[in-house]
Specification:
five-stranded antiparallel β-sheet; five-stranded parallel β-sheet; globular; alpha/beta
């Protein structure tokens, strides 16, 4: 399901943009969810638990403006496509700092918006890396970037997904370690845990905390290796 979030404190502009997006949605040929909100704070709160594909974000908003909201989202490793909406071109250069996918002046031009949305849809429609997880009910396909961490439990493992779901799987941690490599963003930081590095909120020499608030120990001998792997993966070119 392709999800678009529109964030704008101006209710009239929000309604107009939403109508344009819904018109595009009718011809896109794929299931699309459109959500709206009126402040940067609400956007951050929503994205803490959800990962929309595209965010149409007004820059000039009170309290938390769109550019600062985008920076915070990127600091939390949100990979959503961000398209800025604004009445002024003064932030155009700055938008590159948060890897924006577009910058549209208000009133939003229909054709320019549709061209950007088409491009975003095409980009996220490419197959994402996934693994087949063997559960008691058969095999289930799980996207790698939906995994927060994997925990060994006796002769089974438990996959903790970013949406809070816990998936019990048949197999050993070593089996998943071969699939979920450092190159794909994963690291075995403890004999019982493999973590997805973009899901790490912060860490010390002995412990990491995931974005869901789960605390996971880092084995003493792996502290430096984890730090090196984390910074190499998270800040790679």
């Amino acid at each position: 399901m392709f999800e678009i979030v529109i964030c704008d404190d101006d209710s009239a502009c929000l309604e107009q943009t939403c109508q344009l997006v819904n018109d595009w949605k009718a011809t896109a040929g794929t299931p699309i969810i459109v959500k709206t909100m009126e402040s940067g704070d609400k956007l951050l709160e929503y994205c803490a638990k959800n990962r929309p594909d595209v965010i149409l974000l007004d820059i000039m908003m009170p309290l938390l403006n769109g550019m600062d909201a985008a920076r915070e989202l990127r600091e939390h490793n949100l990979i959503s496509k961000i398209i800025f909406l604004t009445t002024s071109p003064e932030f155009a250069i700055e938008s590159y700092d948060v890897d924006a996918s577009g910058y549209l002046l208000k009133p939003v031009d229909r054709e320019k918006l549709y061209k950007l949305l088409d491009k975003c849809l095409s980009a996220v429609s490419k197959p994402a890396d996934s693994i087949a997880v063997h559960t008691a009910f058969g095999y289930q396909n799980v996207l790698m970037h939906h995994i927060e961490f994997i925990e060994a439990q006796n002769k089974k493992v438990r996959l903790a997904l970013y949406d809070g779901q816990r998936l019990e799987a048949i197999g050993t941690l070593s089996y998943y370690e071969k699939l979920l490599t450092v190159e794909k963003g994963f690291f075995k930081c403890h004999r019982s845990y493999i973590v997805y590095m973009p899901a790490v909120e912060h860490f010390s020499a002995t412990e990491l905390v995931t974005k869901s608030g789960t605390k996971i120990s880092i084995s003493r001998g792996l502290s430096k290796s984890f730090q090196d792997a984390y910074f190499s993966y998270m800040f790679k070119e």
